[in-house]
Specification:
Mean pLDDT: 95
Strand order of the largest sheet: 6-4-1-7-8-9-10
Strand content: 15-25%
């Protein structure tokens, strides 16, 4: 009997005997859970109502163990968490005793405690999914760097495979380059190339936070509009930057080509990808940006920042456009691309061919190898 422990910072909402959490995370975990007999989830609990962006675990035997919410991204927050950190660490240590396989979701506050706790159980079989930027030169919070240092230390971290995004030089033997996926093999249909005649549609999907830089995406498309291009931009997602976008749209009278769609389900987003020419993500920090891979799957040419494994996903600019965060320069790149449909079609086809290798079926094969040993 395989008892599988998940240690995660993702807040969970209980509805009867079911536990709901952020949908992309749950969809991925449900693939892992096909191969386990019992699931133990150690995570914070939320009293919020379930929304469109949450789903529940698809498993008949789930035990939930609640952690206290805390924050250890800086010194002041560590001081505030002096009481909750030891309590949470003890909770995680007790949970590890009950499981055969330990799965850590990193980086995050809870992930760091899980990384520390696993050191005391060197013989347990373990995996860690590091969903952030593994680039050793990236500027990250101290707690993230500490997690990385412990995870790649093969003396402290034993019997574990650490799944990271991208291929990085000088990695230790327990570091495994990995990916994530949204669509199945069955979702692959003959691709009909999109032309550049008529309205050009741009799409931004994800949380509207400062780190994702939705305002830069808006200003980029606005500049193309001012240069005479027939463009529109739709935002899918919500967050604290929504008010900033609303004010900017109103102030600059952009209501006729910029649309805030809010949080939508996977099917609605899929239809939006299919109708769009570009997916835009000027994010400051990413792991494997799923929205980029999803957009590419449906023929959206990605416009993204040079973070984490994104340059590799785009093969530099063979299957997309990399941003320099110089508005004039980035706009000129896009303007030139819109003037040359043959180059656009080539990038589009390269994006489709690359992304359709990474399906949930392939992902499941890889996960099964990690669990069935």
């Amino acid at each position: 009997m395989l008892s599988f422990l998940i240690v995660t910072h993702v807040p969970h909402i209980q509805v009867g005997g079911q536990y709901f959490a952020y949908a992309p995370y749950v969809r991925e975990m449900n693939i892992w859970l096909k191969y386990v007999d019992k699931v133990i989830v150690v995570a914070p609990k939320s009293n919020n109502q379930v929304t469109k962006i949450e789903e529940s675990y698809n498993h008949p035997n789930v035990e939930f163990i609640q952690l206290e919410s805390f924050n250890i991204l800086n010194f002041s927050s560590i001081i505030k968490s002096l009481f909750s950190i030891p309590k949470n660490l003890i909770t995680i240590l007790k949970a590890i005793k009950k499981a055969n396989h330990i799965h850590l979701r990193c980086p995050g506050n809870v992930g760091l405690l899980g990384v520390m706790a696993q050191v005391f159980y060197p013989s347990k079989t373990k995996t860690a999914k590091y969903a952030g930027n593994w680039d050793p030169d990236a500027k990250t919070p101290f707690s993230y760097k500490l997690q990385k240092n412990i995870l790649e230390n093969t003396f402290l971290t034993r019997n574990m495979q650490v799944l990271v995004y991208g291929n990085w030089q000088n990695s230790t033997k327990n570091i495994k380059s990995f990916f994530t996926a949204t669509y199945r093999d069955l979702d692959i249909i003959p691709f009909q190339p999109k032309g550049l005649k008529g309205k050009i549609k741009f799409l931004f999907a994800g949380m509207l936070t400062e780190g994702k830089q939705p305002l830069y995406a808006l200003q980029l498309v606005e500049k193309l509009k001012n240069e005479g291009k027939d463009v529109e931009l739709s935002f899918f997602g919500d967050g604290v930057q929504r008010a900033v976008l609303e004010e900017y749209i109103k102030l600059n009278k952009l209501e006729n080509f910029v649309y805030l769609k809010g949080n939508q389900n996977l099917e609605t987003l899929k239809e939006a990808y299919q109708e769009s020419h570009f997916v835009v993500l000027p994010s400051l920090s990413e792991g494997w940006p799923k929205v980029i891979a999803e957009g590419m799957f449906w023929g959206c040419v990605p416009i993204a920042s040079k973070v984490s494994c994104v340059p590799n996903m785009l093969n530099n600019e063979e299957r997309g456009v990399l941003l320099d965060f110089d508005l004039d320069k980035d706009c000129q790149k896009l303007f030139d691309l819109l003037q040359d449909e043959s180059v656009y079609q080539k990038k589009q086809l390269e994006a489709v061919n690359w992304s359709r290798k990474y399906t949930t079926d392939y992902f499941e094969q890889e996960i099964k190898q990690l669990l069935i040993q």
